[in-house]
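Q: I'm a student working through a structural biology exercise. My instructor gave each of us a protein and asked us to get a predicted structure, then write a short paragraph describing it. Mine is Alpha/beta fold hydrolase. I'm not confident about reading structure output yet, so if you can add a plain explanation after the tokens, that would really help. Here is the sequence I was given:
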Amino acid sequence: MTNKSATHDGLCAAPDCSDCDAFLGTRYGTVSANRADIFYRECGAPDAPAILLLHGYPSSSRMFEPLFPLLNGRFRLIAPDYPGFGMSSAPSPDQFEYSFDNLAATMLAFTDALDLREYALYVQDYGGPIGMRLAMAQPDKVKALVVQNAVVHEEGLSPAWAKRRAFWADRAAHEADLVAGLTSVAAGMARHIGGRDHPQRYDPDLWMDEIKQLQRPGQAAIQMALAYDYRRNLDSYPRWQAWLRDRQLPTLVTWGRHDPIFTVEGAWAFRRELPSAEVHILDAGHFALNDLAMEIANCMCNFLSPVMPNGSAAERLLQGARPS
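A: Happy to help. First, here is the predicted structure for Alpha/beta fold hydrolase. I'll explain a few features afterward.
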């Protein structure tokens, strides 16, 4: 498998995805799962190999829009919003447990509601700990893993996590500072731009829309509950690592090197458990799809096509064959 180091800008040598033109446009839906109303975006043929896309903080399924036109000729893409995010319902913490265990349980119920019998997982940020729980709960359904700036190793946590660790140690003393940072324009810009030297290339709506979401009533309580529960993910890292080592799930890692939150060391660490993991270090930030959607789509096409062959009616039409 091809592996790109930081010195090569992570550009994937891949065939043009021009044959991945839209077979079906994006569809939108809402289903009930674990006592929450889960909004989702979907594209691609219903019988194409499925990829479940799990978003990060403080984003939503909208972050995957750049991938949809690039991959929906070969795959069925399904991107849900977690409870409390995007267009999904946001019950208060006294009505819904905002923990990573419960978000994973909700996504498990979501896959059941859509009758997903096998799929690849694409995980970013919060999608990492949610996706690991999901994969371990459904090992026979999850056929491959695509990791994009999501950690399961402590060395992947940058020095920026010092404030979060202080919050975990003394929630009462540090919660007000963390709440104030939720709607910080500077923090929002840093998540998207990182240390890049061309901020003029980034649409401010990327972070301003997130800030508007975080300003909605009840959001502070929801996000603080999840921020505090995140500490349990670190406790789970050894268990997740052992599962990956035992399972040897086919894994593609695409990682934006300019991420101020998760370090490049977190990308290479996957090789300890998964020596055959395909790793690409990209000239991108935390939300790498903002920068290099085509490169990531090409990597995914190359990596997933042999793992999840496409025998859908859509693919046969694209290849000029007559549907059976």
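A: Here are two points you could use in your paragraph. Residues 1-22 have pLDDT under 50 and may be disordered. The first helix runs from residue 68 to 71. It's a good idea to check both against the output above yourself.
Q: Great, thank you!
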